[in-house]
């Protein structure tokens, strides 16, 4: 019976909290429309478009990010997300000095291997770096869990900011990606990887 009580999610302690007032924002980016949602507390999710073809555009010319919807009701985390993503696409070096928005997705608040892997990835793997699933498992403290790392990448609610596109197969192949392989290849090329 001790097991059962441990499996109850910790979220119950927060019942007094008002439910999130979720805000949505659509950002037109060089890789298409990014749907971003979050509340006053933090980001919930970034949804990537499925790319069927790579965006056309001259090499090296980067269109700035434009808020397509939701500009009038942006919360602080959404504003920070906008600033961060705009920098990422246009002047990547700036992302190092910008605040990363707070996250408010249940997955990232749980004490689980998945959340630990995602936080580790965001903290340790910088722009222009790549790791293999195995290396990321090592960084997260369990070198045998490369397959679980793959699962964690698939459930990443905040792609690009939590850079699961930087996790590639040890063979050097890019591996799968929630936003599709074209998107992953574009992001890796953008980072000159």
TrEMBL record:
Q: According to the UniProt record, what class of enzyme is this? A: transferase
Cofactor(s), names only, from the UniProt record: Zn(2+)
In short, the EC number is 2.1.1.63
Subcellular localization is given as: Nucleus
Q: Name one GO cellular component term.
A: nucleoplasm
Record domain Methylated-DNA-[protein]-cysteine S-methyltransferase DNA binding: where: 118-192
Which top-level group of life is the source organism from? Eukaryota
Q: Which family does it belong to?
A: Belongs to the MGMT family.
The name this protein goes by in its record: Methylated-DNA--protein-cysteine methyltransferase
The organism is Rhinopomastus cyanomelas
Q: Source taxonomy lineage?
A: Eukaryota, Metazoa, Chordata, Craniata, Vertebrata
């Amino acid at each position: 019976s001790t097991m059962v009580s441990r499996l109850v999610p910790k979220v119950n302690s927060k019942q007094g909290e008002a439910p999130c007032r979720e805000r949505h924002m659509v950002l037109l980016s060089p890789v298409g429309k990014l749907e971003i949602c979050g509340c006053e507390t933090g980001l919930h999710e970034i949804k990537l478009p499925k790319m069927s073809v790579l965006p056309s555009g001259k090499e090296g010319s980067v269109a700035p990010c434009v808020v397509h919807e939701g500009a009038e009701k942006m919360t602080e985390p959404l504003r920070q997300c906008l600033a961060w993503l705009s920098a990422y696409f246009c002047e990547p070096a700036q992302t190092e000095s910008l605040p990363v928005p707070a996250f408010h997705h249940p997955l990232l608040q749980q004490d689980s291997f998945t959340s630990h892997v995602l936080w580790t990835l965001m903290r340790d793997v910088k722009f222009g770096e790549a790791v293999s699933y195995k290396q990321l498992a090592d960084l997260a403290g369990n070198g045998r869990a490369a397959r679980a790392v793959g699962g964690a990448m698939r459930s990443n609610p905040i792609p690009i900011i939590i850079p699961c596109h930087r996790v590639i197969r040890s063979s050097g192949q890019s591996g799968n990606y929630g936003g599709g392989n074209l998107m992953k290849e574009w992001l890796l090329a953008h980072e000159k990887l």
